[in-house]
Amino acid sequence: MLELDDIQHILLTRTPALTGRYVFVSFADADCGQAWLKALLPTVRSAAAVGVGEADNSWVTIAFTWSGLARLGVGPAALASFPDAFRQGMAARAEVLGDTGRNGPEHWVDGTNRPDLHAIAILFARNDDERQRCEAEHQLLLGRCPGVSLVSSLQLDATPPYDYAHDHFGYRDRLSQPVIEGSEDVAYNGCGGPLKAGEFILGYPDESGQPYPMPAPERLARNGSYLAYRRLEEHVGAFRDFLAEHGETAEEQELIAAKLMGRWRSGAPLTLAPEQDDPALGADLERCNDFNYKKEDPHGYAVPLGSHMRRMNPRDTAANMNRRRMIRRGATYGTHLPEGRPDDGEERGIAAFVICASLVRQFEFAQNVWVNDRNFHELGNERDPIIGNQDGSLEYKIPKRPLRKKITGLPAFTTVRGGAYFFLPGIKALNHLAGLGDQAAAPAPALQGARA
Amino acid sequence: MTDVLERPQVSKALPPEQVKGRQSAVAIPAGGYFPDRVEQGRFGPVFPRTPLNYGFTIIAAIIPGREEKFYEYARNLEAAVAATPGVLDVLKLHTLKWSLFDIKGETYFMYQGVFDTDFDKYTEDAVNIFSATGIDTVFENLEGFPADWKSNSEAFIRFVREHHRPSFMEYAEYSYVSAKEVKSALAVKHGLAGVLDNMQL
Prior knowledge:
The complex is a heterodimer. Chain A has helices at about 30-40, 65-70, 75-80, 85-90, 95, 130-145, 220, 235-245, 250-260, 280, 310, 360-370, 425-435, and strands at about 20-25, 60-65, 120-125, 150-155, 225-235, 325-335, 350-355, 395-400, 405-410, 415-425. By secondary structure, chain A is α+β, with helices and mostly antiparallel strands. In chain A, the strands form 3 sheets. A 4-stranded antiparallel sheet of chain A has the order 2-3-1-4. A 4-stranded antiparallel sheet of chain A has the order 6-7-5-10. Chain B has one domain. Helix content of chain B is about 35%, strand content about 20%. Chain B has 7 helices and 7 strands, in the order H-H-E-E-E-E-H-E-E-H-H-H-E-H. Chain B has a 3-stranded antiparallel sheet. A two-stranded antiparallel ribbon of chain B has the order 1-7. A two-stranded antiparallel sheet of chain B has the order 2-3. The longest helix of chain B has 21 residues, at about 180-200. The chains are: A alpha+beta, B alpha+beta.
């Protein structure tokens, strides 16, 4: 039984937001950190409290780095009980993650590589007015908490057309997401059925049948999770130039785009629509995941073996898939680059969170093996064509009868611009953290029943 | 200490693309890594790829009197592979060898594998296969194996890494070739033989 009233909503709810802001902050001391957290707590809602109806216009999530937990006053024993990867932080794990070369933390632009990054407040809002109202409130809060400094912030905005979620390259997003057992979500055909909550939420049995070890004390860890934050710039101009270079007609260019992803930009998977796009299929969640690879496409004639979709979810061609799944939340940032317009050099991309119970077994495995292992599926000299670390020396093979197409010197379509590991506490744990400096450990009475 | 200093520190072996499918040998520094190019994996430094691709050599003392457990396991695995030939597919194996041997009256177990996946990358999958094929129950007969391995996969992984004895030299008659490539070549050969047979008609 999921304790929905103690789980931050982001774990279980995909909100209908069109805009948002991520705010990265640093605390000068425990008191100011706790004051900031206490002030924000009434706006943080649980999976039980949050709704996605018309009345709800904004959704707030709070999470902390390991050094942030330390700054808030979490004791040494509790700090030591967190897993090594989280304690080290994403920047220190750069080599494991493939964040080298121009993806390296030394090039990150948002201060997320700083050891004094302590917390993130994630705001998603239904519209610009609501986002601006929340931003103004937070600005006032920072004015009242002089010890809390802004490391950086990032505004999120959906890109047009707004009737479906997609990235700056135009690929439809939010198509495949694991479903947690005990939640109200429906597992669509081909999504693998509900997974044990412990794969994503600490304190519950996972797919091994045992609860994944969680930090101590339990009141800090239970109903918590980990967030891996990735700010990924999308080089839209380079991407469109690449399509133009490898496809003479619009149809050929669409096919190249589809071969990189494994799906047409409409979302229709190449396994089910190998020859031409089928937008109705792409928009139909009951059908657009209903496929496998082992028997249907063993050689990658439809979905190339190294395509993004096949790497991020190898389905029946990988072992232990249920131990590798991740929840993804996030949004696009930056302005839309209209088709036909030369690249303006402005940064635009995706800023997303991977949510999982084990950063090493889930997120780092995906980065290290699926995304950046050059020999994934024995491809020899490839990495993920969309999010892999590309330095121009690698290739991309598109199986085709009688002879495959091999693209050499694949350019980088994305660059990592920031990233961090956060612990996402449960609601009770947030109250515990906010009250670490108080005489009484009970939640502050003023917060009882509060809602944004 | 002279011999340590004289051990090769930087590989002079030809790169894989130059010797693929041909004979090659690689001398490996003490410790199993080339200091000039140690790659960090999720569980620590990654052992380098060699002409045999990847592998491990796990050596550990067995709990005295447990020899029969190992022979029993051999019979069980023989039956498991006969019943389900693909049971070990995940490991992308070339070969596996199990041995028991004595040193000064103590019995040791050696488990040596040559395979195409980077063990460091797929550690959890391998551990899972160990479990599925009962090798874990054999490991329970080794000195120092964590009693709580079922709920503590990290401890299992640590045991495997700590008991791996890296090679200091590896040679292959056909270097850097995967089992899949070998099987594919055999399939082409058989297919071609069929075509030639049909050409006789």
